[in-house]
# Entry
Amino acid sequence: MTHRSLYLKIFSAVIVFGAWEIAGRIPVSYAFPTFFESMAALGRMAFDGSLWQAYAETLKPLAIGVAISAVTGNAMGLWIGLSKFFDWLFSPIFIVMQAAPLAALIPLLVMMYGIGLTSKIFVVCIMAMPVIVLNTAGAVRNTPTSLTEMGRSFQASWWEVILKIIIPAASPVIFSGLRLGVSAGFIGAILSELKITPTGVGDIITYSRSIADYASMYAAIFSIILLAVLFLNLLERLEHYLFEGNTRGYASD
Amino acid sequence: MAMPQTNHAMDQSSPVTQDIAVSAHNVSKNYGPVEALKDLTLEFPRGQLTSLLGPSGCGKTTLLKIIAGLLEPTAGEVQVDGKAVTGPGPDRAFVFQDFALLPWASVIRNVAFGLELRGIAKTEREDIAEKYIKDVGLSGFEKSFPHELSGGMRQRVGLARALSVDADVLLMDEPFSAVDEQTRRKFQEDLLALVANENKTFIFVTHSIEEAVYVSDQIAILLPRPSRVSDIIRPTGLREKDSHSIRRDPEYLDIVDEIWDSLRTYVE
# Structure
């Protein structure tokens, strides 16, 4: 089974990259390099170290922002989900945050926090936090009543009900919120590097586009997508490891 | 499955002199303007099974949850062994209509969950759980997850969990309503054996007249809006019968008819 799905994954990758290669060879646009040209550019940047330098820069706001969003987002979500009052108080803020077009807010953030790391962390948090908070709150609010009643009937304390029943019961939705939040965080990190100051991977994208080195530009885009996918896979594995029975046999291998 | 003579003797004694395990005194429960229960008084004899039977919306589950300590009565009091109920306690265990199993936990962890919450060490509680898993006939499924089991097997897990905490009073909220007809019959037979073998008090909510008459020592008929006890029926001759011949017994059929006559006007 594992082998078969591994082959299928390789197969679908071959199709996508093959289509990319063909589209690059036609070419569909002068600005669209082939797959192999892009990979060569990726290899070159990896060897001369510029890729790693760029990631050292990009990962700073990304990691800090995602960590803040995950920890405070889940805590806030739990709090909002448990209490009607905090739901009433805080939910609208996150709904507005989720609906707001972020690019329009960036100038405001720059005015308040400058062009440094703080603004970029803010962008990542604004992107990642609402979906994490709202998913967690919704999942906690919708914990099956009979499960919490079961806990209480066996004399669970308030904390035991939260730790042993509510959080595990909410975990599938909490994790799907985390996955969405983390992907939004990746978007935020790149957006901030394109919109605030070109640093890291955003710098590679902006700079190589300005000198018409499209292979490097696509290589940078490809690498950030790859990183995001790998990270999401890691999250899924963590979920599967923590709450085995919850995945009902549908977890990816 | 012949019933032990002790139970037979108990059936003959009058309800007044019986040992009362659980009693509800003038219990009322309002949800806002709606009166779910009004001034309800009822006694549950020790070691016997009492059914709460009535049309839907008659507050039988509300009464059960008040006895469990999950709901607060608006007025009145429930006593278990003479002590007033202020919340859930180790003397009562609950079996849920929808099983209320933890989907992320294996069968053995689910069965041991009541003991886990009581702070029993892991090896000890799993030994106890193992015994009850065997008793309900689920040996070999210890490592399975609830979604891998049939509805009937899931309720066996719920029953094993309630039995494993060794409470004196077992509260069952329509425990067999979510399983198929054949499994339900098997459960009813098993329940008769359980009542006979365990010295526990069973309080059993059901909406099935046949089920209530089949398994009960005492049937409390509740009528709705607001809920009150309209009648208490104590089958006298059914306990000595073989579990297979109860349904053909004239007394069984008469009681079923009698109950249906009193309930039919309340069913829309």
